Amino acid sequence: MTLSQAEFTYVSTLVRKEASIVLAPGKEYLVEARLIPVARAVGAANVNEFLADLQRRPNPANQRRIIDALTTNETSWFRDREPFMALTDVVLPELVKARASTRKIRVWSAASSSGQEAYSLAITLQENLPPGWSYEIMGTDISTEMVKRAEAAEYSQVEVNRGLPAQQLVQYFERAGAHWRITAQLRKNVSFRLMNLTAPLPAMQPFDIVFLRNVLIYFDVATKRTVLQNAAKLLRPDGWLFLGAAETTIGIDDNYERVAAGRTSAYRVRNGVPAGAPRRG
């Protein structure tokens, strides 16, 4: 069976309202494929029956299941490599000088999915900060299921094979049955929480580094601008913002400037406007 136009409109409107993700016409097959396991899990015969029942009797839990299913969770360890090389070669050496009085680094992994990015950042800081330094990494995601998975910190053999060097697997993981679990020593520096990047963000201490990678591509321009403004409020004046290779602030939010960072680029707040201060535009 295939989705009707009315069913697709219902799902796309729900996802747009709750997650600000734009599902353009032509994504019907994707939506149906993602929702088949959801329909089965709640006992519906198929996606059409599931959606029909949900429209007759709105159910917040099942609506959340749709959001979770349609949130793209593509991730891997040290994804794209260049941003992590930029951290070790450019960003951390600068921040080590700038934070000499506190000897602490705070990092935000926005849209952290099942946690690979946040833990990759933890490994990078663990291996590259001087002795006596500390760090905190906060991962956030709009999917309740992904936040639970990230907190569990357990990964299959297939998952650890995606970008994780064998040496770091041995050093930072331990066997958990058929899976691999991040060691408690590394987990203690990383926390996760549910968060919608397009909604007003809760009060948080500012960050030195923000990874907001491969997120903006799913939003329209107005939503991208909102997300970037939200991120800027939590970025220290001399902090660093990393976006995905196909993403940019140019033409969206001119409070940022693009700067070279090794073999890639990053973004910094123009004129070092303090985190949380009113912004232009």
Structure description:
By secondary structure, the protein is an alpha/beta fold. The protein has 2 domains: 5-70, Chemotaxis receptor methyltransferase CheR, N-terminal domain (Chemotaxis Receptor Methyltransferase Cher, domain 1), CATH 1.10.155.10; 82-272, Rossmann fold (3-Layer(aba) Sandwich), CATH 3.40.50. Helix content is 42%, strand content 20%. The protein contains 11 helices and 10 strands. It has helices at residues 5-19, 28-41, 47-56, 60-70, 82-98, 116-128, 144-152, 157-160, 166-172, 184-187, 221-233; strands at 104-110, 134-141, 154-155, 173-176, 179-182, 190-194, 207-212, 235-243, 256-261, 264-269. The chain has a 5-stranded parallel beta sheet with strand order 6-2-1-7-8. A hairpin with a 2-residue loop joins strand 4 and strand 5. Helix 1 crosses helix 4 (60-70), helix 2 (28-41) packs across helix 4 and helix 5 (82-98) crosses helix 6 (116-128). Mean pLDDT is 88; it is low at 273-281. It comes from Paractinoplanes toevensis. GO terms for molecular function: protein-glutamate O-methyltransferase activity. It is an enzyme of class 2 (transferase). Keywords: Methyltransferase, S-adenosyl-L-methionine, Transferase. InterPro entries: Bact_Chemotaxis_MeTrfase, CheR_C, CheR_MeTrfase, CheR_N, CheR_N_sf, SAM-dependent_MTases_sf.
